[in-house]
UniProtKB/TrEMBL annotation:
GO CC term (a single one): membrane
Name of the protein described by the UniProt record: Long-chain fatty acid--CoA ligase
Pfam families named in the record: AMP-binding, AMP-binding_C_3
Domain of life: Bacteria
AMP-dependent synthetase/ligase domain location: 18-416
Source organism phylogeny: Bacteria, Pseudomonadati, Pseudomonadota, Alphaproteobacteria, Acetobacterales
GO MF annotation terms: ATP binding; long-chain fatty acid-CoA ligase activity
Stored CDD domains: VL_LC_FACS_like (cd05907)
Native source organism of the sequence: Teichococcus aestuarii
Keyword annotations from UniProtKB, A to Z: ATP-binding, Ligase, Nucleotide-binding
Record-linked PANTHER family: AMP-BINDING DOMAIN-CONTAINING PROTEIN-RELATED, LONG-CHAIN-FATTY-ACID--COA LIGASE
Reactions performed catalytically: a long-chain fatty acid + ATP + CoA = a long-chain fatty acyl-CoA + AMP + diphosphate
SUPFAM superfamilies cross-referenced by the UniProt entry: Acetyl-CoA synthetase-like
């Protein structure tokens, strides 16, 4: 199936492919103690059954249906079925609190929810309150809900559904993806079918040039409720890749070697964890092995950034490729064609570590409001200091104040029931609607480089404007520091809240800060620092995609910051 095929909606795309590839494996998942597989034909039949079950229970076009589930086949089946009958999918994180679920239900006006477990059914029912939902469906049997078996008891008419979805207009609202809320309550981003299909069109040439084998697979472990994974899963399987649903981040290392995927998507926090694990293993090796690793890293960085290697260095590098890098690559399965980072800025030092080891780390850039992919690096033009060229079909410019603004079919329709926020993000200029991303960037040749978040700049007491992202990236590049947030708004200088690596002594932490200060200008240097407990999803200081909620962290540790500044 080629990008030139003119699909107007995601259900038309998915059901059309099922007709073309009935016996081809589509999804692989762990159930009952082993890996199971779902073909495209089986997927389509399940979509038809769920669509019929939802209609029979009164779900109508335009209704919002909240979907709360782990990465599993039923998620994509339900998501596709909801959109196929003209309803609007509202994916939600399984890690949401009852208050989070209540906000989404109130804001979206959803009268139906589909959940994966009894525990989640109880949480959503509590969030809804009495009379808050007309229909609560559980993929597992649960008291007071409609079970998945009951929902799919009546066989759907697949042929009729295929004929229907061919008439879904590209501009119809497909889903409400709620922003993860690094500051303020999450907003519902209105994504029409055209936005996600524009992303598909934009990456088509990239996927074809990768030249992936017929049995290529994609390891999916980021939550499908996030815009990044939600869109990418549809895109990659639509190019023939089998999606393998990971059993969780704690099993990821084993799955990489077991499944040997060609494509993996990740967020920067995962790269930080993987680098720490690799360095911990290297530290346990003999001195001569550590020296080989360090030399392989230095020469790998030279290949990336120059100056060019000499003849003897090229020979040495080839030997180190076999002795060192291939062992690292084997930990990722040995067949990776693309390890794509998104969701937040990936520090160049962190990406350089993996690229120097021969791993195809490709940083992309996007946001929920843009479908979500705006730009991405490619293996044959990979700049670790940038986020790649804008996708075909994306018009991008840098505003006078440095903000990145874009337009094109990938742009959202606005924020659900939030005209003020919509007017701030979508502005009409010269008869065209531009999305103001809130990110500050610059063009490096044909590629975009993101330098900071426009609203995250710190203005110190002396009036200096400081980029927290740059300082935090340098801090987290230190092996002694796993997480960092810097403060200083209206204060006399910069302070840092640091989560030290396990077993790190105070002296080692102070030395790491000293090294970072050596790379910073006078106004950027860290004057004070304090250690704090790890930022986690559970304590509300991380989003489900592992982005640090800076405002929450600063609020939670306000007393400690007051002590630092005296």
């Amino acid at each position: 199936m080629r990008a030139e095929d003119n699909w107007n909606s995601l259900p038309a795309l998915m059901l059309g492919l099922a007709r073309s590839w009935p016996d081809r494996p589509m999804l692989r998942f762990w159930r009952g103690g082993g890996w199971r597989s779902l073909s495209w034909a089986e997927f389509a039949l399940q979509v038809a059954d769920v669509a019929a079950g939802l209609r029979a229970r009164g779900v109508c076009p335009g209704d919002r249906v909240m979907l709360v589930a782990e990465n599993r086949p039923e998620f994509l089946v339900a998501d596709t079925a909801i959109m196929a009958i003209g309803a609007v999918s509202v994916p939600a994180y399984t890690t949401n609190t009852v208050a989070d679920h209540a906000h989404l239900l109130r804001d979206s006006g959803a009268r139906c929810a589909i959940v994966s477990t009894t525990r989640l059914a109880q949480a959503v029912a509590e969030a809804a309150g009495l009379g808050g939902l007309d229909l609560l469906i559980s993929m597992e049997d649960g008291a007071g809900t409609v079970s998945w078996a009951e929902l799919t008891a009546v066989q759907g008419d697949l042929a009729m559904l295929v004929a229907e979805v061919e008439h879904i207009p590209a501009g119809r609202l497909a889903c409400l993806i709620y922003t993860s809320g690094t500051g303020g309550p999450p907003k519902g981003v209105m994504l029409p079918h055209r936005a996600m299909l524009a992303n598909r069109q934009g990456i088509a040439g990239f996927i074809r040039r990768l030249g992936l084998p017929r049995d290529a697979c994609y390891l999916s472990f980021l939550p499908l409720s996030h815009a990044y994974e939600h869109t990418v899963s549809y895109l990659l399987c639509s190019f023939g890749m089998e999606i393998v649903f990971s059993r969780g981040a704690e099993r990821l290392a084993a799955e990489l070697t077991d499944i040997r995927p060609q494509v993996v998507t990740a967020v920067p926090r995962l790269f930080e964890v993987l680098r720490a694990r690799i360095l911990a293993l290297v530290e346990k090796q003999k001195p001569w092995q550590r020296r080989l690793f360090e030399r392989a890293l230095r020469l790998g960085l030279r290949r990336l950034d120059g100056p060019p290697l000499g003849a003897l260095e090229r020979l040495e590098d080839a030997v180190l490729e076999r002795l060192v890098r291939r062992r690292i690559q084997a930990r990722f399965g040995g067949r990776l064609a693309a390890l794509v980072s998104g969701g937040a800025r990936l520090d160049p030092e962190l990406s350089g570590f993996f690229m120097a080891m021969g791993l195809p780390v490709l940083q992309g850039y996007g946001q929920t409001e843009a479908g979500p992919v705006i730009s991405v690096n490619v293996p044959w033009e990979n700049n670790r200091h940038a986020v790649g060229r804008p996708l075909p079909g994306v018009t991008l410019r840098i505003a006078e104040d440095g903000e990145v603004v874009i337009r094109g079919p990938l742009v959202m329709d606005g924020y659900w029931n939030n005209p003020e926020a919509t007017a701030q993000a979508l502005r009409t200029e010269g008869g065209e609607v531009w999305l103001h991303t809130g990110d500050v960037g610059e063009m490096v040749g044909p590629a975009l480089r993101i330098t900071d978040r426009k609203r995250d700049f710190i203005k110190t007491l002396g009036g200096d404007m400081v980029s927290p992202a740059r300082i935090e990236s340098l801090l987290m590049a230190e092996p002694a520091i796993t997480q960092a947030v810097v403060a200083g708004e209206g204060r006399p200088g910069i302070a840092a809240l640091l989560v030290p690596a396990e077993g790190t002594a105070e002296a080692a932490l102070a030395e790491a800060v000293r090294r970072v200060n050596g790379k910073l200008s006078g106004v950027e240097r860290i004057r004070h620092f304090a250690t704090v407990a790890p930022f986690t999803v559970e304590n509300g200081q991380l989003t489900p995609t592992m982005k640090i909620k800076r405002r929450v962290v600063l609020k939670d540790h306000a007393a400690k910051l007051d002590q630092l500044y005296g």
